[in-house]
Each structure stands twice: as structure tokens, then as C-alpha cells.
Design a protein that fits this description.
Elements (H helix, E strand, L loop, with lengths): L6 E3 H8 L3 H9 L5 E3 L5 E4 H7 L16
Antiparallel strand pairs: 1-3, 2-3
Helix pairs in contact: 1-2
Length: 69
């Protein structure tokens, strides 16, 4: 079994977490994931951080926020 990469692209992180790339970008914007640029100027994130952050994300609508109708 090959050794997992330390830094992965946003698309690879999405596959790793079972999420959409937009979710990974949201985690980056919320400072849940650190990001850097590779030599091709693509965003890359630490793969261990993606695995660590994914289970801590709460699902559903935040409490106390009314729905809009």
C-alpha cells in the first residue's frame, strides 16, 4: 500500500474527506485548515488535518438560527 501524501490538493482533500471541494474551501475560509501554494500555484492542504477536522464538523442547521420562509 503506497504511503499517503503529506500535502494534497483541494480536490484530493475532498475525496479523502468524502466531501465536495466547496466544503474544503469553506473549511479553509473558516481557518479550520491551513493552506499553502505549491510550485504550480495550486492550494494544497495538510492531509492529516483534513482527516482530523472532518469528524469535528457538526451537521445540520446551527441551533438558535431561525429558518427563512
Amino acid at each position: 500500500m503506497p504511503e499517503p501524501k503529506e500535502w494534497v490538493t483541494v480536490q484530493e482533500a475532498a475525496l479523502l474527506a468524502g466531501k465536495k471541494p466547496r466544503t474544503i474551501y469553506e473549511w479553509i475560509e473558516d481557518d479550520r485548515l491551513a493552506v499553502r501554494r505549491d510550485d504550480q500555484n495550486r492550494m494544497i492542504v495538510l492531509s492529516k488535518a483534513v482527516i482530523r477536522v472532518e469528524p469535528t464538523i457538526r451537521r445540520g442547521r446551527p441551533r438558535g438560527k431561525p429558518t427563512t420562509r
